[in-house]
Amino acid sequence: LHSERGCRRAPRGPVPFLGLAGDTEWGVGSLSLSTEAMKINQNTVLQGKRVTLVPYTSAHVPRYHKWMQSEELQRLTASEPLSLEQEYEMQRSWRDDADKCTFIVLDTERWSGQACADEDCMVGDVNLFLTDAEDPTLGEIEIMIAEPSYRGRGFGKEATLMMMSYGVRNLGITKFEAKIGQENEASICMFKKLHFKEVAVNSVFQEVMLRLDVSDQERRWLLEQTDHVEEKSYVELKLPAGVLET
To answer: What is the residue range of the signal peptide feature (predicted)?
Structure first.
């Protein structure tokens, strides 16, 4: 689990990284997300080899709420446990907030092969935060693999690459940042393998900041890494009668 100070659970607290961690042409115009509700992905499914990313809906809340009862996740996310009602309120705000984009991470094999419900295939979530109101092309990325049995198996890496690809192609992101606890060498190593460079150390929060500027070469690399990803309609796949959740 790695996150930023504007994270889902604790807007002011640093979050370390736990375990390991879309059909638009490149070069799409940047979106001014400060004036656009972040519902752009509400009908988007991104299906990869290991993971499938789906929009965060109310159906996912009970499983997410159960995750966050874990003392380990509370500690790592600097979070206080929420009631189930508060968790539903949090989900609604995350769907609508203009500075956040979130997907739930599913196990592709279970979800597609056995036709399981989303909540039975959930392994974590992945998010992008727009942290600079004056620069909508800068996104801070977080990935949480909440299910211990899925950590260290490449699920976080693929989900991160898929979210980066979606951010560049659909949200106009050209710069990524990640903040990771100084002691978490495995996670720092993973992001460096994704071409992030260490740019700063915050001794107060005991975290390392890594950054990736998406050059033309990096765009091509991201395309190569995610060329297997299929983009589909969530409505057609999961929701009855073709009606979006409100």
So the answer is: none
Averaged confidence pLDDT in the chain: 82
The tokens describing 84, both together, are 């189930």
Alpha helices in 48-124 (DSSP H): 61-67, 71-76, 84-96, 108-113, 118-121
Name the residue with tokens 């499914």. 45
User: Is the residue at 224 inside a domain?
Assistant: yes
Query: Residue 35: what are its φ and ψ, rounded to 5°?
Result: -115, 5
pLDDT digit string (tens) for 184-223? 777 788 899 999 999 999 988 888 999 999 999 999 999 9
Euclidean distance between CA atoms 51 and 5, whole angstroms: 26
What total of structural domains would you count in the chain? 1
β-strand pairing of 122-129 with 197-202: unpaired
Residue the block writes with tokens 């949480």 = 144
Closest CA to 131 of 42, 206, 209, 204: 209
213 within domain boundaries: yes
CATH number of the domain within which 107 lies? 3.40.630.30
Residue 72 tokens read as 């380990």
Number of neighbours of residue 211 by Cβ within 10 angstroms: 16
Q: Does residue 110 form part of some domain?
A: yes
